[in-house]
Amino acid sequence: MKEKIQELSAHIFNEVVGFRQHIHANPELSFKEFETSKYIKDKLSSWGIPYTEMANTGVVGLIQGSIPSDKVIALRADMDALPITEANNKPYKSKNLGVMHACGHDVHSSSLLGTAYILNQLKAEFAGTIKLVFQPAEELLPGGASIMIKEGVLENPKPQSIVGQHVMPLIETGKVGFRSGIYMASTDELYVTVTGKGGHGAQPHQNIDPVLITAHIIVALQQIVSRNADPRLPSVLSFGKVNAHGATNIIPNEVKLEGTFRTLNEEWRNEAHRLMKKMAEGIAESMGGSCHFDIHRGYPFLINEEKLTNEARACAEDYLGAENVIDLDIWMAAEDFAYYSQVTNACFYRLGTGNAAKGTTYSVHTPNFDIDEDALKTSTGLMAYIALKQLGN
Fold first, then answer.
1. Mean pLDDT, to the nearest integer, of 144-160?
2. What is the CATH number that goes with domain 2-185+301-390?
3. Does pLDDT of 393 surpass 90?
4. What is the DSSP string of 112-168?
């Protein structure tokens, strides 16, 4: 079976490159992946793979093995792009100004299409059912995964596990990375408004300075991590946007502050929310102002189920060679795949796409991000192999 998968992966490789370049050139933002969804449905239809629509632009294909079995596995890819203007000058450069596949979701979707082709070619030879989950809106709260779960993506038939992959330019092309247990962080968006009394900068005694209050709040909130969090538990609190809209001699009436809080424990997450809000409001009040602290709760932490992940890693070592499988560390970025991991056995692994000679080592979420397309030789066949091994074939 492994040799057959490798042969089919090689056969479909050039087409998968074409899938990727088409999707890359036509990126769409979260919840607006209409053309991407249509493209995927057209490919599935051409191969005779039935599908249903979900979460507006989501697509769920179904491949039924010919040998009777009640085992079901889901394979997931996300489809949305980011609001970034692409700086690369490639034939497949984004045609939609200000929108770019800067996180590799074009790779994930095209790879799952390639995997679908392989599995569909082999369906007469395996037992079980494979769900192909093409998911919208990974990049935008509340996350397409949460909506698809509510709409029943993990039911009828119910998969015993779900597997996903994500590009990583820090890993060399041809290699993949795994980590069992807690892997990625929860993420919350913080929106803070500090209100004072504006006026002339030369008369601070007549004003209540929200800029100064905000400065105290930013500094003080760092002790939530340094003095309240268990030092053995990773936590990140970062503010990346401060809008005062005053001037050199104008103290504004209010300041708006935006940031992110991430951690790997739900109890501490809830407690940190309480402490941040209490501290910020207390500081503002003590300085004569007020503070509205709004927390938009985001994705939960992502946990890779140990048995499934260890088995998937063993498949990767068998398929690629042990020297091409590496250990991953905790990653404080967030992923809405975490929603799946909270309700079923899940494995989320990393696909190496980095090649210094080809200039594909730029980080995701940057205008220069690109991949070494040789990674598509790995992505399609490996996921097919993991799926069939999980189904007991």
1. 98
2. 3.40.630.10
3. no
4. HHHHHHHHHHTGGG-EEEEEEEEE--SSSTT-HHHHHHHTTTT-SSPPSEEEEEEEE
> What's this model's pTM, rounded to 2 decimal places?
0.94
Residues 6+ apart with CB under 8 A from 158: 72
Q: Where in the chain is the domain with CATH 3.30.70.360?
A: 188-297
Q: Does the pLDDT value for residue 233 go beyond 90?
A: yes
Residues of the chain with pLDDT > 70: what percent? Answer: 100
On whether the CB atoms of residues 286 and 212 are closer than 8 A, the answer is no
Per-residue pLDDT tens digits for 18-39 = 999 999 999 999 999 999 999 9
Cα–Cα distances (Å) from 339 to 56, 60, 144, 335, in that order, read 18, 17, 10, 8
Bridge partner list, 236: 262
State the average pLDDT for the chain. 97
The Cα–Cα gap between 63 and 38 comes to 19
Query: Measured on CA atoms in the order 225, 228, 232, 233, is the torsion positive or negative?
Result: negative
Of 180, 9, 210, which Cα lies nearest the Cα of 111? 9
pLDDT per residue as tens digits for the range 74-109: 999 999 999 999 999 999 999 999 999 999 999 999
Task: Show which residues are catalytic.
Answer: 80, 138
Q: Which residues belong to CATH 3.40.630.10 in the chain?
A: 2-185+301-390
**H or E element that contains 18:** helix 2-25
Provide φ and ψ at 128, rounded to 5°: 110, 180
Fold of the CATH domain 188-297: Alpha-Beta Plaits (3.30.70)
pLDDT tens for 49-73 read 999 999 999 999 999 999 999 999 9
Q: Determine the residue type at 133.
A: V
Residue that is written with structure tokens 């909506």 in the block: 147
Question: DSSP for 275-289?
Answer: HHHHHHHHHHHHTT-
Q: Where are the beta strands (DSSP E) in the chain?
A: 51-54, 58-64, 67-78, 127-135, 161-172, 176-178, 181-184, 188-195, 199-200, 235-243, 250-251, 254-263, 290-297, 302-304, 325-327, 345-354
